[in-house]
Amino acid sequence: MIITILTDFGSFYPAQMKGVILSKLKDKGKDVTFVDIAHDIPPQNVRAGAFALLSSVRYFPVGTIHVAVVDPGVGINRLGIVVESGGQRFVGPDNGLLIPAARSMGTPSAYKIGSQFDASNTFHGRDVFAPIAALLAEGSSPASLGPRVGPKDMSFGEPKRTATGIEANIIYVDRFGNLILNMRKIPSTDVSLKGIKLKRVRTYAQGRRIEPLITLGSHGFAEIAVNQGNAAEAFRLKAGDRIELEEI
User: Fold this and answer.
1) pTM value?
2) Is 79 within 8 Å of 147 (Cβ atoms)?
3) Displacement of CA 186 from its chain's centroid (Å)
4) Residue 115's pLDDT is what?
5) Is 155 exposed, middle or buried (0-12, 13-18, 19+ CB in 10 A)?
6) Given this model, what pLDDT does residue 211 score?
7) Can you tell me the mean pLDDT for 191-214?
8) Structural domain harbouring 7
9) Is residue 117 very low, low, confident or very high in pLDDT (cuts 50, 70, 90)?
10) What is the CATH number of the domain that holds 74?
11) Which residue, among 38, 137, 153, 170, has the nearest Cα to 98 in the 3D structure?
């Protein structure tokens, strides 16, 4: 059984989630392989977490359980849900985090987590979502855990044409400082950002050192990069910013 975990928790909190799952499965004869997708999602950045999950799930086999927790609403009346789609299952808060990934695998069916837990007010990843992942690993169906619900959706939006070019949103900034946009293809004509031309390339090394680029990343989204540099620092931009690519 493969269980992936994605959070904005950083260092030691994910280990507690794994400990809960292993403890509950210890006597069930279930072997678990944990895969950490990411624990360095920017704090409370649900959109960044959704992008990282979306970019990863298609590489996992049928039957994988994905536990994703980026949860600024923990402790209030947001739902916890289990989503089933394409033979994979997703566990986490009902804040849109799970839905882009689930939708990429098929037609999602979402179920409210109806069980009662002795949960802390601030760590549902350990006290709610980890036990639910263990129940799924034991063989429980998502439908057995609670009633079907309509989950909160999340969209990365669409780029818009303007009189001078294209408006787009930065949906993620990776550790290299690449600016990942809500665009599924790169412009067919030359464009500039903040007055600086972006070279259209297939791969980073086609640009000169410290040359700004625009390319289609391995995740399927357009990204702005600086060859051997950091585009986020060079352009002073961050996830969530809206930009305009001006046609040259």
Assistant:
1) 0.91
2) no
3) 22
4) 67
5) exposed
6) 97
7) 96
8) 2-149
9) confident
10) 3.40.50.10790
11) 153
